[in-house]
From TrEMBL:
Topological category with respect to the lipid bilayer: Multi-pass membrane protein
Localization in the cell: Cell membrane
GO annotation, cellular component aspect: plasma membrane
Species of the source: Aidingimonas halophila
Protein name: Probable membrane transporter protein
Record keyword Membrane present: yes
């Protein structure tokens, strides 16, 4: 595929994904990872994680008053061992095999979430989700479903801001460990910088929609996102 067409498709996916995540709180990796994996798999997961840094910093700052700091702390605590496990999995398991395992687990979690009563995320649940997210995001770039299910019953601002901060902390940890393990390449940084204008545009436009989502629509969006992501991850690549 021609480089210009590849860049155009990736920029379009990045802009749309930034709008979705800015409005709903999740979904960036779900949109960008499959497109990037198809067109430029050599950019994953590093370029995807780099792009998510400014996006999640923006979303977290925009609604910082609603952040669940206690939850962020426990998720981040679980993130470190999960990230180390994700690096180990990258070395021994194919991405396709990992994606299918994650996809099946996510769909089961969604079905459980549909029928589960309203609950308050406790320390154990937050730390466990941190471990799982560390594994999945470091290995594949996709870490949204576990966090989405954890905060599915929370108000929109709390869900968006808390998940954004959890992502931001986790992405920094993942990028540092990926760099230390020698999995950084210069061209991944260049591609991330080239796609930054599309990400900024999508993020700014999301301001028009994020406050219009009530709790019921937010929960439906979260469960739908997680279910679709599970199906996407089950597709062999």
């Amino acid at each position: 595929m021609e480089p210009l067409l590849t860049f155009t498709l990736l920029a379009l996916a990045t802009g749309v994904a930034a709008f979705i995540q800015g409005a709903v709180g999740i979904g960036f990796a779900l949109v960008v990872a499959p497109v990037m994996g198809l067109l430029r798999p050599d950019l994953l997961p590093v370029a995807l994680l780099i792009l998510m840094l400014p996006l999640n910093a923006y979303v977290g700052l925009r609604e910082r008053d609603a952040i669940d700091w206690r939850g962020v702390g426990w998720v981040s605590l679980g993130r470190l061992p999960g990230t180390l496990a994700g690096l180990g999995i990258l070395a021994v398991v194919s991405t396709n095999g990992l994606n299918q395992l994650i996809g099946a687990s996510t769909i089961l979690a969604v079905l459980a979430g549909v029928f589960a009563p309203v609950f308050q995320p406790g320390r154990g649940a937050c730390a466990t989700v941190g471990v799982v997210t560390g594994v999945t995001e470091t290995a594949t770039g996709v870490g949204g479903p576990p966090l989405a299910l954890l905060y599915q019953h929370k108000p929109g601002p709390e869900l968006r801001a808390t998940i954004a901060l959890c992502f931001l902390v986790g992405e920094i940890i993942s990028l540092i460990l990926l760099a230390l393990s020698g999995q950084f390449q210069l061209h991944q940084w260049f591609w991330a910088l080239a796609l930054l204008p599309a990400l900024i545009l999508g993020s700014v436009i999301s301001r028009l929609a994020h406050h219009r989502l009530d709790a019921r629509r937010m929960r439906i969006s979260v469960l739908s996102f997680a279910f679709i992501s599970g199906l996407v991850l089950l597709i062999p690549r």
